[in-house]
Design goal:
Elements (H helix, E strand, L loop, with lengths): L1 E5 L3 H13 L3 E5 L2 H8 L7 E5 L7 H11 L6 E6 L4 H9 L4 E4 L4 H44 L8 E6 L7 E7 L5 E8 L4 H4 L2 H13 L4 H15 L6 E8 L5 E7 L4 E5 L2 E6 L17 E4 L5 E5 L1 H4 L10 H14 L5 H11 L8 E7 L1
Parallel strand pairs: 1-2, 1-3, 3-4, 4-5
Antiparallel strand pairs: 6-15, 7-8, 8-9, 9-10, 10-13, 11-12, 11-14, 14-15
C-alpha cells in the first residue's frame, strides 16, 4: 500500500521512510503541506498518510481540512504527527479531519500499530466502496426497468392538472388516469410506504391492474379491490398503498370517491373550500375487506377536487415547521382566485422549504368539470 509522509524535518522524515518501507509500504516523501496536497491531486494518490502538524506553505491541519473537503467519497486515512500533546490540540486536530494522532517523539512500535489500524480501516472502506458501486449500478438498472414499465401507461390528463416531484429517480407516489369505454373517468392517486426504489416497486403492478381493468369498463371499486387483493397476497408485509380513487360519471356532474388512508380530499367552489372527504378505510394491502367506503358527491359548475400526498403538508421549513394543511388550502385558494397554473402550489412549497432537503415525494392532482 502506498503511504505519504509529509514532514519538513529531514531526520524525522528519514526515520519514517525507513521504518515504513521496512514494514512493506510504498513510501512517498514530501517536505511541506503544499507538496503533499499536490501529490494528492495526482493519479493513484496515497490513501494512507502520516503528516506533520507544523510545515511550511501549508500546515498539517490545513492539509487535513482540504483533504476532507475534497475527498468525501472513499477518503484517505490521516495520521497527524506533532509535538503538541494538550487535549485541546488533539481535539482540534481530529475535528479538522485527522483520523489518528501521534505525539513526538513517537514510539516505533506504537507508530507501526497505528499505521496498521489505518491500513485495516482502509481495506474495509475500500470493500464497502466497491460494494456500494456495484449496488449503485444494480439500483440504476432496476430504476430504469421500473421507469420503462411505467412509461407504457396510457395516462389521460383530460380535466386534470397535476404536479409530481420525486425525491429520487423513482417515486413512491403514483398518479393514474384513464377513461372507460362508456365515458367514466377513473383517477387514482396513491402513496406507497416510504419513497424511492422500495416504494416504487408496487407502482407498475398497480398501474397495470388499473389500466387493464379500466379499458374493460370495470368499476373503480372493482379495480381498488383487485389492487388490494394483489397487495395483500403478493407484496411483502409492510408495503402498502394509501390511495384515493375517483370515478367521474360521463356527464361529469357526479363523482364517487374512496379515500383509503390518504389525506382529506379538498372540494373547492369559487376558490373557497366547501367540503373535506376524510379517509374511512385503511390503506390498500393491509386488510382483505372489500372497498365499501364510497362517498357520492354532486359536481357543480367550476367545482374542483384536490387530492395530494403527505409529502406536501409534511414539507419542513429551515425552522422545522411543517407546511401543513392550512397553508395548502390557502395556496390552492390564491391560485384559483388569480387563475394561475397549478405549478404555483409547488412554488409555494419550494419557497417554504428554502434550504431544507426534500425528504418525501410530492404529488397533487386537480379534477374539474
Amino acid at each position: 500500500m502506498k503511504l505519504l509522509v509529509a514532514e519538513d524535518d529531514k531526520t524525522t522524515q528519514l526515520i519514517l521512510a525507513s521504518v515504513c518501507t521496512k514494514w512493506g509500504y510504498e513510501v512517498v516523501c514530501v517536505n511541506d503541506g503544499l507538496a503533499a496536497w499536490q501529490v494528492m491531486q495526482g493519479n493513484d494518490a496515497p490513501q494512507l498518510m502520516v503528516i506533520d502538524w507544523e510545515m511550511p506553505h501549508m500546515s498539517g491541519i490545513d492539509l487535513c481540512q482540504h483533504i476532507r473537503e475534497e475527498y468525501t467519497d472513499n477518503p484517505p486515512y490521516i495520521i497527524l504527527l506533532t509535538s503538541r500533546n494538550e487535549t485541546q490540540d488533539v481535539v482540534h486536530g481530529l475535528k479538522k479531519g485527522a483520523n489518528d494522532y501521534i505525539v513526538k517523539p513517537f514510539n516505533i512500535d506504537e507508530l507501526q500499530v497505528r499505521i496498521s489500524v489505518g491500513k485495516r480501516v482502509l481495506r474495509l472502506q475500500n470493500q464497502l466502496h466497491a460494494t456500494h458501486n456495484v449496488l449503485s449500478i444494480e439500483r440504476a438498472i432496476i430504476e430504469d426497468i421500473i421507469l420503462g414499465m411505467n412509461a407504457g401507461a396510457a395516462f389521460e390528463n383530460n380535466f386534470l392538472r397535476s404536479i409530481q416531484a420525486a425525491v429520487e429517480k423513482t417515486s413512491g407516489d403514483i398518479l393514474l388516469a384513464s377513461s372507460c369505454p362508456d365515458g367514466r373517468q377513473h383517477v387514482l392517486l396513491g402513496d406507497f410506504t416510504g419513497h424511492g426504489l422500495t416504494a416504487a416497486l408496487g407502482g407498475p403492478i398497480a398501474s397495470e391492474i388499473f389500466y387493464k381493468m379500466t379499458s374493460k369498463g370495470l368499476t373503480m371499486d372493482e379495480i381498488g379491490n383487485e389492487i388490494n387483493r394483489y397487495m395483500c397476497n403478493k407484496m411483502p408485509t409492510g408495503l402498502f398503498l394509501a390511495a384515493i380513487l375517483f370515478e367521474v360519471n360521463p356527464q361529469r356532474d357526479s363523482v364517487r370517491i374512496w379515500n383509503c388512508g390518504m389525506e382529506d380530499v379538498l372540494c373547492f367552489r369559487n376558490a373557497s373550500l366547501v367540503k373535506c372527504i376524510q379517509s374511512t378505510r385503511p390503506a390498500l394491502g393491509i386488510i382483505k375487506a372489500e372497498l365499501n367506503n364510497v362517498v357520492m358527491l354532486a359536481f357543480e359548475t367550476k367545482d374542483k377536487l384536490y387530492a395530494y400526498s403527505d409529502g406536501i403538508i409534511e414539507t419542513a421549513s429551515p425552522d422545522n415547521e411543517m407546511f401543513g394543511r392550512e397553508r395548502l388550502i390557502t395556496s390552492i385558494s390564491e391560485m384559483l382566485k388569480n387563475n394561475r397554473d397549478i405549478q404555483e402550489i409547488h412554488d409555494d412549497v419550494h419557497a417554504f422549504r428554502a434550504t431544507q432537503l426534500k425528504t418525501d415525494d410530492l404529488t397533487i392532482v386537480e379534477i374539474s368539470l
